[in-house]
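Archive entry. Fields below.
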Amino acid sequence: MSQKPVLSIKDLSVSFATEKGLCQAVKKVNFAVYEGKTLALVGESGCGKSVTSLAVMRLLPDLANVSSGSIHFNGQDLLTLNKNSMCSVRGNDIAMIFQEPLTALNPVFTIGEQIAEALLIHKRITKKQAKDRTCELLDRVRIPEARKRFDEYPFQLSGGMKQRALIAMALACEPKILIADEPTTALDVTIQAGILELMKELQKEMNMGIIFITHDLGVVAEIADAVSIMYAGEVIEEGDVYQIFENPRHPYTKGLLESMPTLQTQKGEKLKTIKGSVPNLFNRTEACNFENRCAYAKEVCRKEKPFLEEEASGAKVACHFHRTIS
Amino acid sequence: MFFYVIRRLLYMIPTLLGVAFLTFLLFTIFGEDPVRQALGLHASEEAIVALRAKWGLDQSFAKQFYDFLVQILTFDYGESFSTGEKLSDIFCGGVLVSLSLTAPPFVFGTLFNIVIALFISYFRGKSLDKISTFLFVVSMSISYLVYIIVLQYLLAYRFGWFPIQGFEPGFSSISYLMLPWFIIGLVSMGPDIRLFRTIFLDQVKSDYIRTARAKGASEPRVLFVHLLKNAMIPILTNTVIAIPFLITGAFVMERYFALPGIGDITITAINEGDFPIIKAMTVMSAVLYSCFNLLTDVLYALVDPRVKLS
Ligand SMILES: Nc1ncnc2c1ncn2[C@@H]1O[C@H](COP(=O)(O)OP(=O)(O)OP(=O)(O)O)[C@@H](O)[C@H]1O
Ligand SMILES: [Mg+2]
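PREDICTED_STRUCTURE:
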């Protein structure tokens, strides 16, 4: 990938000032998103995927603090923008769809009003034009009877329809980057497939970069070009989707892949799980984060944290033994 | 919606009949004899009979109840036992005074408090928020009476900026009402703003607010458009409940400032055992409460699309 990334994140760290002390939710995360490509951020619950994406949108809750790093987009660092300039980036250049489609829409405004609002905020158009464009969008995300749905309220739509409406809202201004935070987790499997298909189609059409957040490797295989695996707030392995699936280096990535059901899985056979739990994020030690759950852990893993190293293939992995354990 | 309102109005009829009947029963069976009350212990037998006949008390219960219903429907409650004035005139006057006392500070106060609460919510967690919370808690722990007595003493008596008490109809009433308005507004600030702030901060955490921000809405737009319309639902519940009280009057204020409102009229009537007034007041309160209940439901349907009236 010699192309220049649209969005590049360098050394991003986010901490929460909680009652129990400082919680380092995201630590020195790096990644880049390219035009027309999808980067999947993968990791188990609580590993900092949502916090990372909210940091990009500058929508973190008040008690969160970005302690270091930069987020380069369009030749500027988003972290240095003032409130107003950030508002004109959100929804216009970088849009986001959230984990909970069921509650993400405003219950007292119609679907149409909410989608048209995105257009009216960023584009110089009349209400009439915004309405026409909104109906086109509703049609485009395959919501039937767009004209009629325009005047319906969120409670009148099913979960899948709500997520489609949210996608229409996010894509209204044809953003260069779309952040999708587990867009299908709350939905039925059958509806999931439709939404993924739709996102791929729209990505081709608008040539946008997507950050796709998920903990479902099945979905990753379906949609991603590049993958970053996160663990306890850090990226521990990254590479393109083939490298990750065919030649995983990090013991955690291997564990994730092995805990995925496949067609070969026999009925009654137990799926492998990764034993143990995530280390606490309050007192980070010098040890490798995964050391307590890792079958390959040796003395050095307890003493020294491995850094993300680039391999000949271009993939990166943070493990002392990545050469010996593949 | 239209048919819903009609139906609710029809439902009110049996409720109000019940209230009227109970009121009538309580006053006729358990109340003291109004004629003896009016004429005193030493009245002559003829005088008592004459007054009974005049007030219709010699009729059968059914006839008396029927008369009472006619009074309610025609809004002609006869005359006061103690002063002989027409009751409908007394009430009309009283309601006007009570409304002019309570409605302006209610309407403007509520709007003012909503704006202030939004402003404070914008600075949530900052020092403005903390200082104002402290001030409001202090102001709420002081009794209503203290505000009345202290402000009446200072602003009206010592500084002479306002008349101490009394009332004149027409335009000049404003000078008498200014201080009571100010006090009602001031006293409502603490509880209102605290409540509205809690409602707003509760809503600010919602997902739909985050969605609005994610599409690029500015913070004022998020607060005044997205948040406010949602917050109107709990705010309505809490304010519309107070409306009947506007008409039945702020008893205490009317007493302290000698304003001839409904509250003041009722207290005087109770003291003097003026039954027609009390009876009429009871029925009219029931009518008011029923109407405002209906109004609340209609308002809900107007703000919240999920509420369907059918
Ligand atoms: N509002 C908050 N207050 C305190 N800590 C928080 C808050 N939000 C997140 N965190 C911390 O940040 C960590 C990462 O949370 P995040 O929401 O990014 O997880 P996630 O990877 O998105 O998980 P999931 O798959 O469940 O959505 C959490 O483990 C938690 O400790
Ligand atoms: Mg999340």
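CURATOR_NOTE: The interface with chain B takes residues 57, 59, 62, 83-84, 87-92, 95-96, 98, 100, 103-110, 117-118, 121-122, 153, 155, 166, 169-170, 172 of chain A (CB under 8 Å).
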